[in-house]
Model the fold of this input.
Amino acid sequence: MRHLAAYLLLQIGGNASPSAADIKKVLGAVGIEADDERLEKLISELEGKDVNQLIAEGSAKLASVPSGGAVASSGAAGGAPAAAAAEEKKEEEKKEEKEESDDDMGFGLFD
Done:
């Protein structure tokens, strides 16, 4: 991830095709040692490709991945736990109110 971040920073900075040495220099500036094997793989994978197009393609792929929403499919069965949770919350609020009145004991904070 750090290699890719350095690559993208270099591209944003105006270097259309950053080399491994450029990426090592950026990473070295912040005290990170580059992994030569991963760096070479990244350079070979991105060579001759438009990064903006790759990002757009990746975003399109991520948009098609389901990300939740299964909670609503439980229907009526999901209503019972919600009602129980609401009752528990009311009971907790009542307990808290009682505790607050006991803590005061007639003395004010700034008396």
